[in-house]
Design goal:
heterotrimer, A mainly alpha, B mainly alpha, C alpha/beta, A: mainly alpha, MetI-like fold, 10 helices, B: mainly alpha, membrane (chain B), MetI-like (chain B)
Chain lengths: 276, 318, 551
Amino acid sequence: MILRQNLSPAIVGCFCVLSFLTVLVMAAPWLSPSDLSEVNLLDRFRPPVFMGGTWQYPLGTDALGRDMLSLILRAIQVSLTIAVIGTIGGAIVGTTLGLVAAWIGGILDAIVGTLVDFQATIPTLILILALITVLPSADFTVFVAIMIFHGWDRYARLARAIALSAKSQPYVQAQQIMGASTFRIITRSVLPNAMAVLLVNMSINFPQTILAETTLSFLGVGIQPPDVSLGLLIGIGRDQLFNAPWVALMPGFLILITTISISVLGDWARDLVEAD
Amino acid sequence: MNWYLFRLGRACITILLLLILAFFALAASGDPAQILLGPDTSQAAIDAFREKWGLTLPLWQQFLIYLNGLLHMNFGLSYRTGESALALVLDRIPVTLSLVLPTILLSIALGVPLGILSAMHRGRFIDRLAITLSVVGLSVPSFLLGVLAMYLFSVKLGWLAPSGYVDWSSYIMPVATLSTVGIGTYARFTRSAMVEVMSRPMIETARASGLSEGIIHRVHALPNALTPLITITALEFGHFVTYAAVVENVFGWQGTGSLLIESVSARDFAVVQAIMIITGVTMILANLLADLSYGFIDPRIADLRHRSARRLRTVCES
Amino acid sequence: MNLQPQSQCRAHPLISVQGVSVVFASGQSGSALRDLSFDLMAGEILGIVGESGSGKSVMCRAIAGLLPPSAKIKGQMNFEGRPYPLSDRRLLAGLRGHGIAMIFQDPMSALDPLMTVRRHLALRTPGDPGPLLTTAGFGDPGKILDSYPHQMSGGQCQRVAIACALAREPRLLIADEPTSALDVTVQASILKHLKAVAAERGMSIIFVTHDLAVAYQLCNQIIVMRNGVILETGSAAAVLAAPRADYTKHLIASMPRSRPHASGIMPQTSPPAGLRPIGVPSARHPALRLDNISVGYKTPDGRRFDAVRNVSVDVGEGEIVGLVGESASGKSTLAKAAVGLVTPSAGRISMNGRVVDWSRPEPSWRREIQYIFQDPRGALDPLGRIVHQVRQPLDIHRLGDKGEREAVARARLLETHLDDKLFGRKPGSLSGGQRQRATIARALTVRPRVLICDESVSALDVSIQAKILDLLLGLRDKYALAILFISHDLSVIQHICDRVVVMRHGKLIEEGPTFELFRNPTESYTRDLIAALPRLPDAPPSHLSEQEAAV
């Protein structure tokens, strides 16, 4: 009922965009016409079909003559995968820490609280850049870890607040009085009731994670060539804005619709949760 | 315990954490002897170097030496240029501030009124505009905005110089790019704060005793909704500094941000560390100031210092 | 216009409401009104009485023009001889302040936390705030003028809110349950001042309340509402002493009041189902003994603060002991200490002669004592089905197999008279009374010997409250339960308890058998409490017992 009442065309559109992107990510290896490392210097800067190009390269080529369609498919795959795993990982780490800290209290709570405060105060991107400087190499796995680090504090803060308020909720106290174990209370009562809020927070955090990864890659300190991400493609393309604008604009457009879709859906989901 | 002291202590702990992090990152970034002396140096020379710089001491003593160095404004030398890291950073700070300060002013000047209008005309055009702006501002990466702006105004229209500082018009694209994020943030925050305050029972009470909507907005809603803006601004300052790094990079400005990125790419940790510590300490102090200022603005916080047992008893009982 | 003075006012009502109907566009957010009309003379006090969902608050907001835009309003009112269509919110807004003013239930959130009392009043009147505050009941207004809301108690906040409402000298004050969140002594004083202001200024008051006794004490006229319709109207004495509508009769009969057999002598009414002789508290070891309990907190500035100081209470088998006190008396803290939700700083808790230490609980102790919360909505997990939640204690203690647990849960739910169609529902779709039945059933699954009821009926409407109280009495008789019954409401205590313990500021003030204590309180504080209790006119006693027998 509620779902149907609030479904506007914009929401449906956002759902469609995200489903389409998910399919692309899944099917990327099969859809991709050519290998990423396939360099063809004779075919440099071919425009995409809609800018007067040919169907040989539907989305054109870059400065090395690589097929843009293949590049973009791989880039979406890399960027979205990092963002998804990073967001979920951050949610798990942060939520667990926040819940445990609030429930146990004392020194553990103080430590987690200080860490959360620390990360909220110091700009996270600068911390990450410092990390990248000292890490030997920033490959895919390291990047996922960095993205987990990027978002955990918000979940920890939220989960801590939820657990603290749950502790004073009669239905949780009722379970304590019944003799339920802490583990049972947290897993059977607190978590299920906090799920909606946590999911909404994930939908808000997800675009932030994409933002962070693409920004780092754009700046040349993220995903390293020969692998590509959406940010890296734009970074490469911005030097050719004059003669080959499509190299930067197409991945830019993809980031735009992805993050906006998720944000709109996140806002919508939050309104739903708050309306309850 | 005195609340101010408590807050101060917290700030000190955070600074200490920052320094510990910086120190360990430095220690992990590799053996300075190897890096500074090069790979061909003899083992004896390396040992001598290590002895000289205290690298054989226990870690905690090294940390104290490091702290002592920081207190004397010694942030180490840049591996790339051999210059003092601090001097390199200080040199670039004015450029970054010249981008960030106008951005903050512009964001507040446009974002806050937009948020207020949007809250007062919910569902109307101005509200949709504010919501759209804040979604765009918060979900589109600033580098992308910058690149798009550059494509439109420099490549397509040829109105503005694509990069570097030429004249005052060079400010337009970077500041506008940064402000899009800022205006979105402030509009969104102000809107939701206003909506929340306007739904409080005190607003209905004020109406019921005959105050006009105008007075209610001015004396009740705005002060209550806007007080938290102090914290938001302190936190936003950090975000702006980060985004400035991106925007400087896009538009080719020589600020701390572009210095940071260059240094990260070159693994010049001394400079990265200097930027991290300076930005971090600035942020910690800004947050501290913001928190302390509530002591003067919000009577509830002012009272935390001598909260009476009577109030507490009410709290316990409820 | 104002040439004809008093006589005109006498002849015409100050406010005359005709044919008010309200429909909410979104549906549930409030009950609709259907075609209401009433008159109110200048200087008179009109009580609007009804249970939750009766539409009494909606009607007041309609008159004051404070309903949200989603409400579609029809009807009109004549105010001081002028017609106002109630759908025109802008016109009504012009009336607020000097014509109509309104105060609300929750005083703590009624004032702006960033403003002193002085500024609150200065916004409304340029004059001296002192006399206004005196009118609202402050003995020494100078003391309070520069306070912020968080520095004041609920009663003080409500008085300031009243002063704000009176600042522009309204002709009509609408008060929507203004004293329901306050202590009974504070309530008495506020009611007294409201009555005085009305008499002094010739101001009319519309007083909304769920409490018939309060309405009887304060009002000249009474309207009884239910489901958005006026059921009965008339003078307070007539309506409450000789009600005509069945619903009013039912409401009056549901009011808790002293029962002759609540004095510790268990009467003939108890069914013979119990296993042990009933009502004879076993003298050797009471089911629950709280021995010299103290509970201390640390204040933020590091000082210690005792919420409970050296309180001892015994509850015998089959006995209901009432723990009564105003807010901040420490009664809830004591109750929480009894089940280990709060750790006492000193003292000993024993059950059935064994000392229990909740910091090292044994599972079997948990089965012997159970707790019923004030808010049944909060006490149930919003996501779990009723029957599963009632089964939960058995799951936790691993008693019986799954089928048996389910059977026990159903049996307990039936015992609390919950309709079995509701067993598979989630708490959200149940009413307050139904939810409270479910929490009682849940508490009973493990067959506890001791039950602690913490304001367990305070959030319920009177008619439902009466049924839950009867349910508790029945269960006590059946299982010889020892019940510690915490309440701020003396009339409920008087209704249900065998013995009463009075607390104030964390200390035990007085204790004794209910009947004795109410008839002859020794402490002056207890006397004040009892005196402040609003009372109905004495109803024929047959009324009550009939009603009880029916339930």
